[in-house]
């Protein structure tokens, strides 16, 4: 008897047929993803694609049960698929596993349109937002999910029916003023952020000399404090110098001297800085004194830690006590931190020298990078009289670790499948397209710490009319990027094809003027045609990106042309859908564009879980990387005025995992 007999009886032949035929995309093969893939296979889903960018780590094995020790370092998606396939050998399932980033340009609108249902099992906002936008653009239902400790939630998102991921504002990222991080830290987290996002980047990250200089010159030209700018330039040059020599025997020691002695002395010379009440002057650290035990550890501004000693004066602290605690949960002495700093610098610089074209980035599971941040943060904390942290604590804080509980993941994965069945009931069969029928209500389901009623639900809210993600219009365009010029796009696609669209409330004699953007870049407007003869490829408009067309008056919804792979057989450099879209009116402009302080949480929802609504870039203009200008911008103009305001207000640095923002 085939394993699916009972499931078929339970679901009924029609729904079971949909289960077998619908193409499912699972994004993420981590804690939730592994549980989900197993469930899907056992239920009888037979046409699954799973994508994950990561490889298996030892720390995944406690809950990502599709992986075993010998799988460490192998791609998660591939191993998950290979293991899960065996769970239901009789169903003839096809699992297509891909080791890659869902944000890669090959994963464009045409790709996502190939799925009947998408399930997110992700751990970061950036990727969640990306998939949400793709699903909204392609009109493919998405089930979003997340867990944090004992809490979890499952949220189905269907275009024109429910709110989308971006309809609900998310809490702003934890943010710190740049001065707190760079000059006046007062908490261990300030020192950790400094080590992880600032010093690490300066020494081992991408060397951004041109950008630095260009940015500082621009700041100076726009009237910012010239002396401060010159100081920052000098600092950048000095870093470049120490970075160049990092591979030499005394390179790490020179870095130590620069950042923990010279730079602190420079700050101490700015006397006004230390007049502010409550500010404690740092003490410059001395390599030799720390190593030979003569350096007097600055007093801690916090109550002394009882768990472990700090500073050379205490280096002989109870060895019995040290042995008792786990290695990673013991505080290092000042000398140990210094030795670890020198050693981790050597390890990292050896990697940089071996692979000069690959800038390093912090990863909590990469011992070299964690050791560096641990030692750096503790040395800085000592200089500023701030409590030190153990390796375990630094890993948790720097890695933004949210406790993961296997049982929560398993329950949430089960609930995803339940909601997927609710969605499938309403969808037409892939093999026999028909009108979708109204099926059972889909629900936002959540798991909470209520012993009597651990599961709760709410009906999904309607889409926010102002949401720029799910309310805008999307059009796939297949383009030969090397042949299609911006002029062809403007004249033929926008002024030709799009102008035939039905615009809500358009007067007969109304003449619409257009502006064209890619991301935050203005490519053309009625008074700006310098880019017209350039090809889209030359303008760095690539597959997976979007050309956004707005009317000058902001009367209508923007139309996003989603760049898809060109048709090799086509004679024209681009091809478009047969019918232009209907373009509705834009909602009235909001009185203020300030993001709301408080996140809006749906009635009866649990508090936002870190994993679900963790630190959020305010808009796409504030995403990682927007501080860089596009390569070879040529005549391309910078971000719009409005976007520049947002940038100025919010972001200087947004770290890769979106967890700390430095204002
Ligand atoms: N842009 C992306 N494209 C593809 N996969 C992604 C992307 N971003 C995150 N992921 C994957 O989503 C999964 C999320 O799983 P999970 O939350 O369990 O995180 P983890 O990295 O496995 O565990 P931990 O963070 O606790 O070490 C990870 O396997 C991660 O690689
Ligand atoms: Zn929305």
TrEMBL record:
Residues 477-556 form the Ubiquitin/SUMO-activating enzyme ubiquitin-like domain. GO terms for cellular component: cytoplasm; SUMO activating enzyme complex. Zn(2+) binds at residues 164, 167, 467, 470. Residues 10-468 form the THIF-type NAD/FAD binding fold domain. Residues 315-395 form the Ubiquitin-activating enzyme SCCH domain. Gene3D superfamilies: Ubiquitin activating enzymes (Uba3). Chain: B, domain 2, Ubiquitin-activating enzyme E1, inactive adenylation domain, subdomain 1, Ubiquitin-like 2 activating enzyme e1b. Chain: B, domain 3. SUPFAM superfamilies: Activating enzymes of the ubiquitin-like proteins (SSF69572). Residues 294-323, 610-624 have a biased composition (Polar residues). Residues 289-329, 586-645 are annotated as: Disordered. Pfam families: ThiF, UAE_UbL, UBA_E1_SCCH. This is Ubiquitin-activating enzyme E1-like. The active site is at residue 179. Heterodimer.
